[in-house]
Design goal:
It is a multi-pass membrane protein. This protein has 171 residues and is mostly helical. It contains eight helices and no strands. The chain is flat.
């Protein structure tokens, strides 16, 4: 057995280091300032893909709904924050902006603008609420299979369509 092992080692071709060295790149070092290093790093980062996973994977209901849940959460929070800050600034500066002013401002809009404004608020709100309940169901350990995740995703989309339409046109 030892003889076979020696023979197999001898049969492995030896590496010709001269041939390997020819194929290698020559590396050189250059003295630079920290600002020049930063500029080189920024130039290198511009050539990198930002999100290769978006180009590789096929869009799936799971990550699309997850992305929209985050986007609607940020959008709704920004809208509520903007209105709240406007009320606060109006009380500090003495400008006339209260609920009656806001109602008269919306009442003066054309019907199409009112419907668009209501839709822009109601559909993200309905989606975020429904997907929030979906996450609560998952927190209790239910519907965690692939089939359950897709089933609850389609329920969220149906709920969003129904409640968003109701809030936009009938309320």
């Amino acid at each position: 057995m030892l003889f076979l092992a020696r023979q197999s080692i001898r049969s492995v071709p030896r590496l010709n280091l001269a041939r390997v060295a020819v194929g290698m790149r020559q590396l050189t070092t250059v003295k630079t300032t920290s600002q020049e290093e930063q500029n080189i790093l920024v130039a290198q980062r511009k050539n990198r893909p930002s999100s290769p996973h978006l180009q590789i994977y096929q869009p799936q209901l799971t990550w699309i709904l997850s992305s929209f849940h985050r986007i609607t959460g940020v959008g709704l929070a920004a809208g509520f924050y903007a209105v709240t800050c406007t009320f606060a600034l109006s009380s500090l500066t003495g400008l006339q902006f209260d609920t009656a002013t806001l109602v008269s401002l919306v009442a003066g809009l054309p019907v199409a603008a009112k419907v668009a404004l209501k839709a822009a608020a109601s559909f993200p709100f309905a989606f975020h609420v429904a997907n929030g309940f979906r996450h609560l169901v998952w927190d209790f350990g239910h519907e965690l299979t692939i089939k359950g995740v897709y089933r609850t995703g389609y329920v969220v989309l149906g709920f969003t369509a129904l409640i968003g339409t109701y809030l936009t046109f009938f309320l």
